[in-house]
Structures are given as C-alpha cells and as structure tokens.
Automatic annotation (TrEMBL):
SUPFAM superfamilies: NadA-like. GO terms for biological process: NAD+ biosynthetic process. GO terms for molecular function: 4 iron, 4 sulfur cluster binding; quinolinate synthetase A activity. This is Quinolinate synthetase A protein. It comes from the Bacteria.
Length: 65
C-alpha cells in the first residue's frame, strides 16, 4: 500500500493485535463454513456498522488499483 499511495502516512503498530486471532487458521475457517457450524448472532447495529466498514474497504481498494 505504501508504494501505491506514497502521499499517505501509514502508522504501523505490530504490538497491537489480538492474540485470539492467532487461533484462526484457514483450515478451521474452511471447515466452519463448509459444515455451517458455530453460528454467531449479532445486533442489527453491529451488522450495519460492519457492512459500512467493508464497503469503505472495497472502495479504498478500488482507488488503489
């Protein structure tokens, strides 16, 4: 991203991550989706905010291309 957006300032904080994220591996995610296990229920407000965030990420990705 730095190469594609040299005018932007990026802040990297490698120490700030969630340790539980290390437990998520592609094989487990694949199995979960394939077998439709571990359903998570979210409030409508959380879903709306997450959707907005994903839309913004996609828009940014289109600009960077």
């Amino acid at each position: 991203m730095i190469e594609k957006c040299p005018d932007k300032k990026f802040v990297f904080m490698p120490f700030m991550h969630y340790f539980s994220m290390k437990k998520i591996i592609l094989e487990n995610l694949y199995q979960c989706l394939e077998k439709e296990r571990y359903e998570i229920e979210l409030d409508e407000e959380v879903i709306k905010n997450a959707y907005k965030s994903l839309e913004n990420m996609h828009k940014f990705g289109e600009k960077v291309k």
